Each structure stands twice: as structure tokens, then as C-alpha cells.
Amino acid sequence: RLFWQWTHDYAHTFTAGAGGTVSTTGGWYKAGSTVTVTASATETGSFFSHWTGDVPAGQAGQATLVFDSDQPRSLAAVFGHTLHVTPTGGGAFDGSDWDNAFSNLQAAVDYRGGIGTIRMKEGLYPLTATVTIEDMRMIVELAATEISIANKSRGGPPRFELHPRAAQQDQ
What is the pTM of this model? Predict the structure, then answer.
């Protein structure tokens, strides 16, 4: 007599975006087994934002996923960044902290796909074109007060637009 014993295994793949890592890249898991994967930020100023792909229900915003292996899954961890901008910038001009702040708001918005927080010091920021800020939080520090600029759009991702001031005519 010949007996075949079949098992169901599912392939899971896990990847990390810029600024972080995952605890495992995946592999084959037996059906019903518990799978755990953790996303961790690895760069100064970066933080875990969310998972994309075949994310188990209700877990997209959790750095550690725990789920039963019930289907193949491909997941990617997305990381955001806290960036700093001052009117004059400084140091390495990479936005990593106040001493190395960007001097250009557009540079902060464009950094690594624009997910995260932009912290701005009080001052004048000349604009030569419209700056559109999506999927980011802006914090403006005015003297000792901190103000968070809220999104007023209905539905969809947060969206802010800053427009250059019209040139004033001399009278």
C-alpha cells in the first residue's frame, strides 16, 4: 500500500522600504501555523508608518504582525521620516535634525516619497512654485509655541498646498 500525506504550505514574503528592516524575509509556512514579523526603523529620524500588500485585517498600522498562515502573502513595511526645515538650513542640509535642516521646503516634501512629518521653524520661506504636501504632517514652531497644521480635505490622503505670494506692486 502507498499512502500520500499532503500538507498545505503558504509562501509569505516580507520586505522593508527605505529607513527600516523586517525581522524575517519570509518563507514557506504550514497552513494554520502562526506567523510573526516585525518592522523596525533603522535610520535616525525614521519611524514605522504602515504595511502594504496582503495585510491581515486590522493590522496595517501595527509594527508587529501576528497572523495564522491561511493564504500566500506578500507584505512591505513602509517607513516615514521626521524632517527639519529652517529658513537658512544648516550643516549637512539633510533634514535629519535642526543642526542639519533643509533650507528648502520642497526638498523635505520630496525626501524618500514624502511620508512623515515636516518640522519648520518660524521664518520666511520663499516659494518659486506651488508646493503640494500629501501624506505628511506639518508642524510649525513659532517661538515657544508649536502649531500643527491640519488637513481640511474630505476623504483621500491629507493634502496641503502652499502657493507663492503674488508680487506686490510699488505705489
Answer: 0.69
pLDDT of 135: 65
- Tell me the three cell numbers of residue 89: 538650513
Task: Tell the burial category of 52 from Cβ atoms under 10 Å away from its Cβ (0-12, 13-18, 19+).
Answer: middle
> Rounded to the nearest 5°, which phi and psi values hold at 109?
-65, -40
Q: Please provide the distance, in angstroms rounded to a whole number, between the alpha carbons at the two ends of the chain.
A: 103
Contacts of 52 (CB under 8 A, 6+ apart): 60, 75, 76, 78
| pLDDT band, residue 168 (cuts 50/70/90) | very low
* All cell numbers assigned to 114: 514624502
**pLDDT digits 0-9 by tens, 30-63:** 999 999 999 999 988 888 989 999 999 999 999 9
Distance CA 24, CA 62 (A): 16
Location of C-alpha cell 528592516: 21
| Placement of cell 518660524 in the chain | 122
Query: Which whole-number Å values give the CA distances from 106 to 88, 151, 163, in the listed order?
Result: 14, 18, 12
Read off the C-alpha cell for 34: 502562526
